[in-house]
Structures are given as structure tokens and as C-alpha cells.
Task: structure prediction
Amino acid sequence: MVSQGEEHSNISRDFLAKAEEALAENDLLQASEKGWGAAAHMVKGIAESRGWRHDGHRALYSAVNVLAHETGDPDIRVLFSVASALHSNFYENWMPQEMVADDLAQVRKLLERLESLS
Result:
């Protein structure tokens, strides 16, 4: 049986793959939202496994901040903020394709850094 934390991690990886598919189809809104979802679910998975709250943006940012301090890697905060910009783009549709692609690459880096913590 898969734990809730593992389920969030699995969803994260699935969302990143779907984000890259959407990008290839030039569906920038879905690429953006799936990129955000990938980052958010990875953080939720870690938070769940540690018994931390993860029920909203504030809780996710708090978890990211703790993880950045714990690992000594402040780029975790920066990379999560990039993912948050993708979330905004889903609603505003202001990012050109190149920016969405670059930001998805940053989300991939974030997931790689966080995967060992989940």
C-alpha cells in the first residue's frame, strides 16, 4: 500500500510529465498549472511524511522554508517561487513559451533536490 506522502510524490512526477507534454503541444496554461502542481505535490508529500501541515499556500511556503534551512540550500525557496509564477501564469496567461519552458526546467531541478527528502 502506498502512503499519502508517496502518493503526492507520484502525482508530482506525473504532473511534471504532463506539463512537458502540454508544453510540446503549446498548451501553456496547462503546462504552467501542471508545473505548479508538480512542485506543490512534491512539497505536500514531504510535509505529509513529516507530519507537517500542507493544506494551503501558506503551509507549503512554510514547509519550503524549513526544507531550505534544513538542507542549507536556499535555492529551494527560489525554485519554488518559480513554480509559483507558473501557477500565476495559469490565471493570467502572460508568459511566453520560452519562459514556461525555462520555468518547467527549474521545477524539474526543484523536484530532483526534494526527491531525496520525501
The chain has one domain: 4-115. The chain has a mean pLDDT of 96.
